[in-house]
Batch of 2 targets.
Target 1
Amino acid sequence: MKSKIAFGLCTAGLGMAAIGMMGLSSEGQAFVWEFVITAVGWAVAGAGIALNKLKERGTLDKYTL
């Protein structure tokens, strides 16, 4: 179940970052909001990757001495 959640987080984060990056050519306050959306998207994607790494570590620990 954790891998499905991690995949969902990565997908949502990368989609959010892509939408945020589309507006980075704008000016003024719109640029700030698009930068924030991009940063949050990358953070969500990173959380998904971290969750996947924790899942892999738990699976690996089960089969090692």
Target 2
Amino acid sequence: MQAPHQSQRPTKSTMSPSSWGDDMNFPAFLMSGLAWLLVCLTGSQVKAADAPDVRPVDQAVIYFSFAPWDGAAYDIEIPLEHADDAVQPVIRISIWGYPQFPDPKTIHFSGKEDAGGGPSRGAGRALFQANLNKSMPERLVGSVSFKTLQNDHPVSGSYEFATLDGKRRFKGSFQAAWGNKPPKVIR
């Protein structure tokens, strides 16, 4: 049997701090782990408030949207007035397909639309979020009316919605600017 060389260390089958070897300082290991834990818990020093806002708060925006499971859509975000229980409230309306309306058009929402394309798919869906992208969306029942809806032209219209439980009601008008270009299709 050969004696171990100086560079070889005997191994132990248990994972105790003494088995990590002489080159690993257990208190240093714990401190580095604690430092990583603090970084993970406190998060990045860059806050969302530091990012510039690309649109005025009271300006609605219409976006081209596309998802493989439900196809093309327009998404309209309409910011609302702040309330005690709503820091950044918004109505988000999705219109399936890329329809264009040169004449006035009203779309009705039952609040039970199926985004997956089922029998109750409807022409789109409308949601309310009390805190944009931070709170659960609530389905809306009601309608949105467009004066016109054409690509690369400002979109204006009016809306009247209520949450399914009837506790919140929304009525107003909007002028929406285009926030992006249509997605390119690769075939």
